[in-house]
């Protein structure tokens, strides 16, 4: 089998040729993941960028690629013009150029990405180099090549300014130097697929390319024969490269690793897994944490979404936009908890301010504001609110000053059991502390079971009927409420084990 390359297929082959073989012959081996938001984000950024160079002529997608190529040929003769999705094929190597500037001297390539960095994504250069290869071999004079990406320093005003939103990075010299390599790669990939047909699966060991530059969808398939648990199940900050180094040294299972030179937390995770240790509870540290809390106790959790293109005045690309919180309150020792909540309207242009004002009203006193993963609430949300709304700064700073991170007791391993599997994530911790409790089981929830589902569900409200909107809103409130109730239950567990 030979393969008709496109720029996306070429980039996948650069990471690992087997990705493309598996995509074609074993697509069912990919775990079901909702990537609609990522795809939609890329489409939105791409559509917006089309107007960067002025008026343009768009070539609509057609399954018959020859129609797109013929339309491109016609438009190329009518220069100067700007063509979006201009399509070309050279020796069965196909590409569509996001934006093509076409004039009397030649053409310029503009490849649009929804990222905020070029340095972290070297594959973008390979993408453009492949397009340069196709066009130049068709006899076109490619004068310039650019990668267009989002400017993370741009703060949106009342109106969106796409000229400030996007950065155009000239990569012409780099992609020209890659041309010999592109030709070699194209030949290599075609030979690979001539050898490996449907009944001849490539035999390729796992490696760092399984997660660079992107996490491969076929990881579970390719690692299916590894012992469980294994080096890749170690939780914490160990680099993927270090894990693969251990793997290639033959240190794969927890038995292989138990006497290795690893950090204390990794060895502890291994030890608990292999030897079924009793729960580790550092009572003095947990007591110290409990004694540091001041009533009223505010257990709060935020939900937020991100937009590649800033949707609100005063925000930047991929800023966390808070749209919901749940709040459990215990006013004094022995008092029953109260619950309050906030859920924004999907079309509210003042969503962030309304979120902040509601939170300030619901946290009127200087009690402890208890969160799970303080970096998110304090740094990624509250500090941004301070910048956007200086008149709210004092109150938000007051909330931040009272903030306490309950997760630290698990990340510091002051409380640890085997079932946490080395993780301090609430989704591991809660079932480990309260096993088989349906009231605390996220899987028992309707529609929304985790954070990314919450943001997707909220954003989907725009396209739903009133009845569907009510069902989604109810599911969002139910999910977020469980997050803060979970913290209350953890606090109760801490009190129980330190008596």
Per-chain topology:
Blueprint: H1 7-15, H2 17-25, H3 36-49, E1 57-58, H4 65-77, E2 81-90, E3 93-103, E4 106-112, H5 123-137, E5 142-150, H6 162-165, E6 166-170, H7 172-177, H8 179-195, H9 219-222, H10 240-248, H11 254-257, H12 264-275, E7 280-281, H13 283-291, E8 297-306, E9 320-330, E10 338-343, H14 351-362, E11 369-371, H15 374-388, H16 393-401, E12 403-405, H17 408-411, E13 415-416, H18 426-433, H19 451-460, H20 466-497
Parallel strand pairs: 1-2, 4-5, 8-11, 11-12
Antiparallel strand pairs: 2-3, 3-4, 5-6, 7-13, 8-9, 9-10
Model description:
A 6-stranded mixed beta sheet has the order 1-2-3-4-5-6. The protein has a 5-stranded mixed beta sheet with strand order 10-9-8-11-12, with helices on both faces. It has helices at 7-15, 17-25, 36-49, 65-77, 123-137, 162-165, 172-177, 179-195, 219-222, 240-248, 254-257, 264-275, 283-291, 351-362, 374-388, 393-401, 408-411, 426-433, 451-460, 466-497; strands at 57-58, 81-90, 93-103, 106-112, 142-150, 166-170, 280-281, 297-306, 320-330, 338-343, 369-371, 403-405, 415-416. Helix 15 (374-388) runs antiparallel to helix 16. It has 3 domains: 7-193, Lambda Exonuclease, Chain A; 228-275, no CATH class; 280-499, Nucleotidyltransferase, domain 5 (2-Layer Sandwich). Strand 3 (93-103) and strand 4 form a beta hairpin. The N and C termini lie far apart (69 Å). With 499 residues, the protein is α/β, with parallel strands linked by helices. The mean pLDDT is 95. The protein contains 20 helices and 13 strands.
């Amino acid at each position: 089998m030979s393969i008709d390359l496109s720029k996306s297929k070429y980039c996948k082959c650069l990471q690992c040729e087997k990705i493309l073989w598996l995509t074609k012959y074993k697509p069912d081996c990919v775990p079901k993941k909702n990537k609609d938001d990522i795809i939609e984000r890329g489409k939105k950024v791409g559509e917006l960028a089309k107007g960067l160079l002025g008026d343009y002529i768009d070539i609509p997608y057609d399954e018959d690629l020859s129609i797109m190529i013929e339309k491109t040929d016609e438009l190329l003769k009518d220069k100067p013009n700007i063509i979006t999705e201009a399509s070309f094929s050279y020796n069965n190597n196909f590409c569509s150029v996001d934006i093509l500037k076409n004039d009397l001297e030649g053409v310029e390539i503009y490849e649009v990405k929804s990222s905020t960095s070029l340095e972290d994504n070297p594959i973008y250069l390979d993408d453009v180099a492949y397009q340069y290869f196709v066009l130049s071999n068709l006899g076109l004079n490619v004068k310039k090549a650019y990668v267009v990406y989002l400017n993370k320093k741009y703060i949106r005003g009342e109106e969106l300014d796409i000229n400030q939103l996007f950065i155009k990075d000239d990569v012409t010299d780099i992609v020209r130097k890659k041309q010999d390599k592109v030709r070699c790669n194209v030949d290599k990939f075609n030979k690979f697929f001539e050898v490996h047909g449907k009944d001849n699966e490539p035999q390729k060991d796992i490696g760092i390319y399984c997660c660079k530059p992107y996490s491969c969808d076929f990881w579970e398939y390719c690692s299916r024969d590894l012992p469980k648990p294994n080096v890749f199940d170690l939780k914490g900050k160990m680099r993927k490269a270090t894990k693969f180094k251990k793997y290639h040294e033959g240190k794969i299972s927890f038995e292989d690793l138990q006497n290795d030179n690893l950090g204390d937390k990794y060895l502890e995770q291994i030890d608990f897994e292999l030897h079924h240790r009793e729960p580790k509870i550092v009572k003095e540290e947990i007591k110290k944490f409990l004694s540091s809390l001041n009533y009223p106790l505010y257990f709060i959790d935020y939900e937020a979404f991100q937009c590649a293109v800033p949707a609100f005045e005063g925000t930047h690309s991929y800023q966390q936009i808070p749209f919901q919180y749940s709040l459990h309150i215990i006013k004094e020792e022995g008092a029953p908890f109260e619950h309050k909540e906030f859920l924004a309207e999907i079309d509210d242009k003042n969503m962030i301010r309304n979120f902040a004002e509601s939170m300030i009203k619901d946290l009127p006193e200087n009690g402890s504001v208890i969160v799970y993963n303080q970096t998110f609430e304090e740094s990624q949300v509250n500090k941004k609110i301070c910048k956007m709304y200086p008149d709210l700064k004092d109150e938000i700073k007051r909330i931040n000053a009272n903030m306490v991170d309950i997760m630290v007791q698990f990340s510091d391993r002051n409380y640890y059991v085997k079932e946490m599997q080395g993780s301090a994530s609430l989704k591991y911790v809660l079932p480990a502390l309260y096993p088989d409790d349906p009231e605390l089981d996220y899987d028992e929830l309707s529609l929304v079971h985790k954070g990314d589902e919450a943001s997707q569900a909220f954003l989907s409200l725009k396209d739903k009927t009133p009845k569907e909107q009510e069902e989604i809103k109810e599911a969002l409130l139910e999910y977020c409420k469980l997050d803060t109730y979970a913290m209350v239950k953890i606090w109760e567990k801490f009190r129980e084990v330190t008596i």
